[in-house]
């Protein structure tokens, strides 16, 4: 644990951000969370956040001591600017530029900029996000180069020494499940299975072995395949 560092975790209520929150709680003496309401189609993730945070606090006594305030930010401007399958009820398809129409241009950039502004005010010097370019849909704002460039720009623009941490950047989904198990045991894996939400369509009917979801959207396919590999013992770090 790095007692001198304090972290702000981008916490959506999904699998990746919950794993990142556990990662941060193991490392930093003070951790806060930030979530964004941007008019997302799968807004059910915002509904599961409060209970998830309560469950994270009860999972380990030291996590309860380190986990501080949660901040919910209205970024509805994103949905006004975007025409995507994440913000409108349209079919998920591939676009001519090779990206699925679930890509929301500028979303992660705005998330990080907003988080950095809040971190500045709250005296937090680490931002933690679940961006990954191993198992992902090709989103350019999830790439390591983007995050490194953004860290430089934010620190230049605010005269700070913020550090952007992306613990899942080089992990596939099976390894993300494995990391969760290492951080919080089977209890955290079960919490992520039943408590988080990642499905793009917001489907929360039947509980599958890998969690809730439609089972067909890109997010569900990645999550399900990763869990199956993890369960088979193939998610080694």
UniProtKB/TrEMBL annotation:
Reaction(s) this enzyme catalyzes, per UniProt: 7-carboxy-7-carbaguanine + NH4(+) + 2 ATP = 7-cyano-7-carbaguanine + 2 AMP + 2 diphosphate + 2 H(+)
Family annotation (InterPro entries): QueC, Rossmann-like_a/b/a_fold
Recorded GO MF terms: ATP binding; ligase activity, forming carbon-nitrogen bonds; zinc ion binding
List of residues binding Zn(2+): 199, 214, 217, 220
Gene3D superfamilies on file: HUPs
Binding-site list for ATP: 11-21
GO biological process, one term: tRNA queuosine(34) biosynthetic process
Annotated pathway: Purine metabolism; 7-cyano-7-deazaguanine biosynthesis
PANTHER family, alphabetized: 7-CYANO-7-DEAZAGUANINE SYNTHASE (PTHR42914:SF1)
UniProt-listed NCBIfam families: 7-cyano-7-deazaguanine synthase QueC
Identification of the protein by name: 7-cyano-7-deazaguanine synthase
Gene (name only): queC
């Amino acid at each position: 644990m790095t007692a001198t560092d304090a972290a702000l975790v981008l916490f959506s209520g999904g699998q990746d951000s919950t794993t990142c929150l556990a990662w941060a709680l193991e490392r930093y003496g003070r951790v806060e969370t930030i979530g964004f309401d941007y008019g997302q189609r799968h807004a059910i993730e915002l509904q599961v956040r409060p209970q998830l945070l309560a469950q994270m606090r009860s999972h380990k006594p030291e996590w309860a001591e380190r986990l501080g305030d949660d901040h919910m930010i209205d970024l509805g401007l994103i949905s006004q600017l975007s025409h995507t399958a994440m913000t409108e009820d349209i079919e998920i398809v591939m676009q001519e530029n090779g990206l699925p129409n679930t890509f929301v241009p500028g979303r992660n950039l705005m998330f990080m900029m907003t988080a950095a502004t809040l971190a500045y005010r709250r005296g937090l010097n680490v931002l933690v996000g679940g961006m990954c370019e191993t198992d992902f849909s090709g989103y350019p704002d999830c790439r390591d180069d983007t995050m490194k460039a953004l860290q430089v720009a934010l620190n230049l623009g605010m005269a700070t020494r913020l550090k952007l941490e992306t613990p899942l950047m080089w992990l596939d989904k099976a390894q993300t499940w494995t990391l969760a198990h290492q951080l919080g045991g089977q209890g955290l894996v079960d919490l992520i299975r039943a408590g988080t939400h990642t499905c793009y369509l917001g489907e929360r009917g039947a509980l599958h072995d890998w969690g809730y979801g439609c089972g067909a959207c890109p997010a569900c396919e990645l999550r399900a395949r990763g869990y199956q590999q993890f369960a088979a013992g193939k998610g080694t770090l």
